[in-house]
Amino acid sequence: MKKLILDCGGVLVYPRLGDWTLPFGMAKILGPERARDLHTAKYLLAHRRCAQWLDESRPMKDVEDERRVRREYIRAMDAQMNWGLTEDEIERLGDDFTDNMDRYGFFDDVKPWLQRWKARGVALGVLSDAMPSILVLLERYGILEDFDAAVISTQVGAIKPDPRMYAAILEAMRAEPGDCLFVDDKAENLEGAVAAGMKAAQMARSDALPAQMWDGPAVRDFQALDRLLEA
Fold it and tell me: Which residues, at least 6 apart from 189, have a Cβ–Cβ distance to it below 8 Å?
């Protein structure tokens, strides 16, 4: 197996606040009184009502497109939560999400293993349901350069397990499905990869366990993934 395709969330990165949708500086920008609403039942219900703004299958050209969408999401949340946000606060929250890369952390084994695989001639790809700022994050932390191709859902206009996602990364890597091992934390995405003709393995890190395990191969870290890759 010479081609390795990795999901991003749960495989490469994790949300440092425990929530993929929160800007890192949200509590500070909201202030103590309004920040107490975060993670309450009211907040979760409001997020459910406003989640269409965070649709990662929506085509986007760049981070500026994402920034506008993030602000509309925050504006809709404000209407639900009665926070009384000013336009300046809405803009700051949108900017914080797209520009403040502290919202994500990398798992400790990511950088060393990407470099080892690259040195061994393994072709590496990223396939992620994500908005454009994720590519900025990967580039800023010196990760993007280790990959031969990176495809995100807002480029394709679809999310996994839509067959178009797997076709896009295969085309970008000029790869045959049977030569690729795809790694994701979500069972349905792995099943989509298998349907596309790929091998697949679930990433089940001990500090980021998937909501659902699948019936195929599973690994807990990149060292175990390397053993599977070699096998």
Answer: 7, 160, 161
